[in-house]
Amino acid sequence: MKDLNTDICIKCGSCVRECPMNLIQMNDLPEIPETAEAFCCQCGHCRAICPEGAIGGFRESKIEGNEKFTITPEEMGSHMKLRRSIRHYSDQPVTRETMEEIFEIVRYAPSAANGQPVEWTVINDPDKVNQISSRTMEWMNEVSKGDSPIKDIMPLDSMIESWENGMDPILRKAPCLVVAHAHSENNMAFTDGIIALTHLDLALPSFGMGGCWAGILNIACNQHPPLKDVLGVPERNTVIYPFMVGYPKYQHQRIPERNQPKIRWE
Ligand SMILES: Cc1cc2nc3c(=O)[nH]c(=O)nc-3n(C[C@H](O)[C@H](O)[C@H](O)COP(=O)(O)O)c2cc1C
Predict the structure, then answer these.
(1) What residues form the membrane-spanning segments (predicted)?
(2) Which of 17, 64, 185, 227 lies 20 to 30 Å (CA to CA) from residue 90?
(3) What is the CATH number of the domain that holds 126?
């Protein structure tokens, strides 16, 4: 096994049990057969579980006190229930440093076979975000003149009217827009992107921030490919979803009611 420090491995078999692909075999020492190496998804679980830190040249440091799961179910519940879609943003600018801190958390989101395929475009400029809404409204105006089925799923006329009245029904005058995208040939990336965005959504409130899924822009991008260029998404990539980000202007005073979960216990 590459990266195994044979002097300190105690042959406990933790790495063998932990490998999600069952690639590691315990011979004299844990080993990955050469033919199986290509299947390693580099998830790092063998390094993370090893009690001796014998794998990987200590690339990952040992978890210390404040990195353990210390959030109680009540605290986690509050955090997740208090998250709201934010549709009114204060003038406080979003800094690149803060976004970097947030992505430092978000990059730990799970992904299929640890593929980590999601790429990001951060449009952290209120004027540019407004420009994207403006281009989307141009498309809406065109669509509203024809008989597109989009008219059945979107209240185009009221959105056009609210835009004309100085509001932004597309991106809500958010100061920052994050776009998750991935290589078009990766057909597992969509789910990974949605998961990563969900991590972003949940991380934001801990920074005093908030956001909202930009579903209308997403539909527009799917219907009108030129919008993809406006979002700064590379040619080879497909948009997974755009997401508004900023500082909430107002504080929600209560948690809105939600349906009971529909669960079948078998
Ligand atoms: C995939 C998705 C797309 C959404 N698109 C929009 C949107 O385009 N505009 C908007 O104002 N809210 C959008 N939302 C927010 C939902 O309306 C919101 O999540 C829902 O009403 C529940 O409110 P909450 O997020 O505050 O709990 C979207 C949410 C999701 C998950």
Answers:
(1) none
(2) 227
(3) 3.40.109.10
Residues 175-195: tens digit of each pLDDT:
999 999 999 999 899 999 999
Residue 124 in 3-state DSSP?
coil
Q: In angstroms, what is the span from residue 86 Cα to ligand 1's centroid?
A: 9
pLDDT exceeds cutoff 90 at 59: no
Same domain, 95 and 24: no
For a mutational test of ligand 1's pocket, the pick from 80, 213, 222, 250, i.e. the residue with the most ligand atoms closer than 8 A to its C-beta, is 213
> How high is the pLDDT of residue 153?
87
**Centroid of ligand 1 to alpha carbon of 212 (angstroms):** 6
Handedness of CA 210, 79, 108, 214 (dihedral sign): negative
Same domain, 81 and 57: no
CA distances from 87 to 135, 162, 225, 250 (A): 19, 14, 25, 9
Q: What is the dihedral of CA 149, 152, 157, 160, to 10 degrees?
A: -60
Find the residues whose C-beta lies inside 6 A of ligand 1.
Answer: 84-85, 87, 212-216
Report pLDDT digits (tens) over 137-180: 999 999 999 988 988 888 999 999 999 999 999 999 999 999 99
Q: Are residues 146 and 168 in the same domain?
A: yes
Please give the Cα distance from 136 to 171 (Å, whole number).
10
Instruction: Give the Å distance between the CA of 176 and the centre of ligand 1.
Output: 17
Q: Is residue 52 part of a domain?
A: yes
Atom of ligand 1 nearest to the CA of 87: 11
Domain count, the chain: 2
